[in-house]
Amino acid sequence: MGDLKVFRNHLEDLQSKAKHLTETGLALNALFAREEARLNRKDEASGLKAVYRAIVEQLQRLRENELLASCDQSRAKLILSMSELAVTAIVSRGNLSAITDCLLRGAVYKQQPLGLVMVCIGPGGLPDDARGISVSQLARESNRSAAETIGTLQDDGYLLMSEGSFSSLISRLMGDVREGKLHLPVSGDRLGQITELNKQKLNPKIIKLA
């Protein structure tokens, strides 16, 4: 009987240790899961920061291109001005069509949009469907105003914002991701709800290059 009691006590001790090990294993699993989730959130936040930096670099290159376009347009205006001076010599000959053509060309150059670059986020949202664009370049290529170009992009489901607004959005998203309130990717529709850009009409401000 004594041996049986010893065996029973030993068995109960083993069961207690097994229970403790099981509880410890479950606690460790929960700890590892939380740590993995934390690291995933950290990686997603870092990914958003990398997207922000890449787009800021794109915007800087686009601004440089707009500066070059401004210089080209200034040279074109100068050439037209010189042409208009030459046209005065034609006036005495009654060649009014040549004067009209020169004036019309000058008006076209004066209407060319310049200097407006923005962040454009497509339906795929962040982090994969976002880039910097030159609204002015698109407007020039399509022979439309910057406001018309923005309206068309918005109608096609694109979100447009300034660099400052994009910076604020990224900061907010990074905070939500770190807190576990949000996970990537974030669709364009979801971003529209977050920023309420779908309820707003952007009023483009042309950046003075000179």
Can you walk me through this structure?
The chain is mainly α and 210 residues long. The protein has a domain at 2-57 and 114-199. The protein has helices at 2-91, 96-110, 135-142, 146-155, 163-178, 188-195; strands spanning 117-121, 130-134, 159-161. It has a three-stranded antiparallel β-sheet with strand order 2-1-3, sandwiched between helices. Strand 1 and strand 2 form a beta hairpin. The longest helix is centred in the first third of the chain and has 90 residues, at 2-91.
Can you summarize this structure?
This protein has 210 residues and is mostly helical. The chain is 70% helix and 6% strand. The protein has a domain at 2-57 and 114-199.
List the helices and strands and how they pair.
Elements: H1 2-91, H2 96-110, E1 117-121, E2 130-134, H3 135-142, H4 146-155, E3 159-161, H5 163-178, H6 188-195
Antiparallel strand pairs: 1-2, 1-3
Helix pairs in contact: 1-2, 1-5, 3-4
